[in-house]
Amino acid sequence: MRVRILPALWCALMTASSLAEAHQLALGIRQSARVESNIFGSATTPITDGTYRINPSLSLGGSFDRFRGGKYQASYRPSYLWYFRSEGVNNFDNKANGSATIDITRRDHLSASASYTEFSSVQAISQAGADGSFDVLASPAGETIRAFGDLAYSRSLNQRTNVRLSLDIQNYSYRQSREVLRSNVGNKSVGAVASYSRGLSDRLTLGASLASRYRLFDEQPLSGRSEVVVSNLGILGSYRISPRFVFDFQGGPSLISTAPGAVVGRPQPESNDDFTYFADISLTRKIRDSKFRLNYTRNEDASGGSSRTSVVDSISASFSSAADEFWRVDAVLGWSRRQTVDAFLIRDEGSTVPRPFSQETQLDRAWVSVGAARRLGERILLRLDFRYQSWTDYKIDGIDQSNQDNYSGSVSLNYEFPSYVF
Fold it and tell me: Which domains does the chain show, CATH number per domain?
């Protein structure tokens, strides 16, 4: 896969650039050093170690003047990671992404994006999401691969009304994980969303959405493929309390339908439905060069390498500010809970008494991070980060399990070469 990604990226870049009128090529290199108190995320034998990462980057962007001012962007960021003390875990990672937008007419717009990421699964605890949350996998063995893509079409019916249709695919794979007894289970999914929104005033926008996702888990040694269909009917809303104070809401009832894979030697378990709700609520406040954001989300989860349907609740508070023309600081505080929702019963042959086959799990996590960036020149950026993350409560079938935490600190230096415009 590592070999194939480079020709694929090159073809995508050449295809996009052949349609564009103006291009900008940018090169950069980032170096970072990190120290962690529990670098492999173990609840029983935490290991303190550090890493050094070198991360070159290549990006290409341009405009589609032939398509009424559309534009594209593509980038590739490989990296090599050295561990200071641990042996046999150094790794070469890949990350590539691209996006394009086209204005078909003044009212019709088309957009597409794709991304590919691969890293060794022992690094999962160090992967931070957009809300600051950290990753949790069933097993640290092998490598984690994530490939996403989406295509969206939107139409402005008038100055206040918009309709949007989107289709996306997700692929979570875990290479070499099946070589160990406790392995990660990959899955693939396709999702579609249709939404309608209308501005009722300069402050208030309301709308509705209908979403559905089909997720198929990989086959396992002792059971077949599990299938999940998630459907959600949502209400959309945005209210501008003031020019710099905005409340956004999206949410509504959801249905999760699970068809569990058959266990070897036992009858096919029955499908089950779970009624719940999904939501994405945020409050954003801007004051001069500072931004505060409070966010709550509830959604179906990609299951973190398990073959289980799960729902994640997440609360986060973030702050960022430009102290002056050189310094920028930010901080994130968050908490999340992942719960399985597809526990089901099976009947042994010759028995009329059902018994649980899958386990109910609940994992609560918390994190806090602070960072500061200092621009040393037009092309050099220095960044310092500190982070604490913890499993605050972990239960399987109501029984407490071992928790873990991790302190980490890092320093990084990024240099951007002069862009080449052609």
Answer: 2-421 (2.40.160)
